[in-house]
Write a structure and sequence with these properties.
Helix content is 37%, strand content 16%. It is α/β, with parallel strands linked by helices. A hairpin with a 5-residue loop joins strand 15 and strand 16. The longest helix has 18 residues. About 7% of the residues have low confidence.
């Protein structure tokens, strides 16, 4: 199965898409930007570990390519481009800037130039199918009914984000290299409809966050009398099209599995938008409950700022009103009345799975999660253990100095894939030669057999705590394909174990034992 390259996998929607596609046994590669603290692979491990903790099971790992959509060819070198040419056939472009007003070149650098760079990579690596995540709000300030087939109708726009996404869609639609494209247009993505989980706290969460931060200026009872809708210039009858991230990912996964792609656009929207008047009622009820049920001697309330310094009277109210208006000004267009979004194409693919309604119960889930998570601060940390299977395979690759030809006649060099699930896992293809050398490449490069095991089992094998024969006998590994591969597996594991145990001073002595795999 050819690989799909995903951008934006560390974002909220991207992390759900990565999870759902991996669970469907899709072959996935991800483009991830490293940080000063974490490598791209470590960042992917951190986000997948969240799902593993929730479900108490190990997940496969994608192939991780480090890069940045703002760089030409996404910052990928010739080796990575070559790997994509041999192994991938499409890109799911989910990365984007959500900036509403231009700042430091955004949202244009990511949303427009980023798409140009993705299309450039498609040409360089012969990826002829693009799946592009856009937004339903390319409609701008239109009213009435908006069709999936429409894009630029001369509409005005509420912010730079909408303008940039229209330009990006135009680039995709006009590209002459692609065989097919798919445009995916979600409306306002909020947290999980079941748990409230989210990693992004803008848009929907902004008034709640600002109101809570300003509660230190007035007494609780006074806050209940504030007309939040009036401060935002709203009547309360405005409709907002909220879609939970879990449903959006499920819907996108179903659409992307529908073959063949046909240059179509899919609106991922709700047919039951939320009236804005419901939101402050839910917000205030939750806040009031937390304040009234909190320990007055505790000082700092869970999910709320310190309220002991509250001011009273006219000065406090006026400070609150002025500050609330100023801090929400950038999102003023966000709260306008939404048009009616046509979603005929999406309904055709998902006739029995409409978007779950964001009712008061779901709104409460979303708000309570945001408060309990303190709006994502401090960020969640995952401890990366000292032993990671990927380090063993990276060490093997570092030892390679020359090349071999692939597709040897008469099946002389059968390829064997190792798929390691859990922290530090991944998939690597190993090919042995008659002279005892090995070639290694990330991903499953047309391997005839795949050996699956967890990262814990792999570590025990490499450290000599258990024999491969025992792993098979105890069903701690699954072999898909040729079952008679024990000898080849043991030979490679023995090499990896030796390589792992050697100091860097001795690595040059075995530099010719491992060779890079050619496609």
């Amino acid at each position: 199965m050819a690989y799909r390259l995903i951008t934006g996998a560390t974002g909220l929607l991207g992390s759900y898409l990565l999870r759902d596609l991996l669970l469907k046994n899709e072959s996935i590669a991800v483009l991830v930007r490293p940080t000063r603290q974490r490598s791209g692979a470590d960042r992917v491990d951190c986000l997948l570990s969240h799902w593993e903790e929730c479900w108490k099971r190990n997940l496969p790992r994608p192939v991780v390519l480090e890069g940045d959509i703002r760089d030409p060819l996404l910052g990928l070198d010739e080796t990575d481009q070559g790997w994509l040419s041999r192994n991938a056939d499409r890109v799911l472009h989910s990365a984007a800037s959500l900036t509403f007003q231009e700042k430091d070149g955004e949202p244009w650098s990511s949303n427009v130039e980023g798409v140009r760079n993705v299309l450039e990579l498609c040409r360089a690596s012969s990826l002829r199918c693009l799946e592009h995540v856009s937004t339903a709000y390319v409609c701008g300030l239109r009213t009435g009914r908006v069709l999936e087939s429409e894009l630029d109708t001369g509409q005005e726009f509420g912010n730079d984000y909408e303008r940039s996404k229209v330009q990006a869609e135009k680039l995709v639609r006009s590209d002459g290299f692609l065989d097919a494209y798919t445009i995916l247009r979600p409306s306002i993505i909020v947290g999980d409809s079941i748990s409230g989980y989210t990693t992004t706290f803008h848009g929907f969460y902004t008034p709640l966050r600002i109101a809570l931060a300003l509660l230190t200026s007035i007494e609780t009872e006074e806050a209940l009398d504030v007309n939040f809708l009036e401060l935002l210039g709203l009547t309360g009858q405005e409709r907002k099209n909220f879609v939970p991230v879990d449903w959006v990912s499920e819907a996108m996964t179903a659409i992307l599995s529908h073959h063949p792609p046909r240059n179509e656009t899919y609106a991922l929207v709700s047919d039951a938008p939320v009236h804005v008047e419901r939101m402050p009622e839910v917000f205030l009820r939750i806040v009031y409950d937390r304040l009234t049920n909190a320990d007055p001697d505790d000082g700092q309330l869970p999910g709320l700022p310190n309220v002991n310094s509250a001011l009273t009277g006219t000065n406090g109210i006026e400070f609150f009103r002025k500050s609330f208006i100023e801090l929400n000004s950038i999102y003023q267009s966000y709260w306008r009345d939404d048009p009616i979004f046509d979603f005929s194409n999406t309904r055709r693919i998902l006739p029995n799975r409409p978007c779950p309604q964001v009712n008061d119960h779901v709104l409460e889930l979303l708000c309570n999660y945001a408060l309990d998570a303190n709006f994502g601060f401090p960020p969640r940390r995952t401890n990366i253990p000292p032993f990671l299977p990927r380090h063993c395979f990276e060490n093997c690759s570092d030892a390679a100095t020359s090349s071999i030809e692939s597709n040897q006649p008469n099946g002389e060099n059968k390829r064997l894939a190792f798929s390691i699930t859990g922290l530090g896992g991944g998939t690597w293809t190993v090919e042995s030669t008659d002279n005892g050398h090995f070639a290694v490449e990330s991903g499953n490069s047309q391997a005839t057999t795949n050996v699956w095991m967890t990262s814990d089992t792999f570590e025990r094998l490499i450290c000599g705590e258990i024999a491969y024969s025992d792993v098979i006998e105890q069903s701690h590994a699954v072999v898909v394909g040729d079952q008679d591969v024990s000898k080849r597996v043991e030979q490679f594991l023995s090499f990896v174990s030796r390589e792992h145990g050697r100091s860097s001073a001795h690595r040059e002595e075995t530099a010719t034992e491992l060779l890079p795999l050619k496609g």
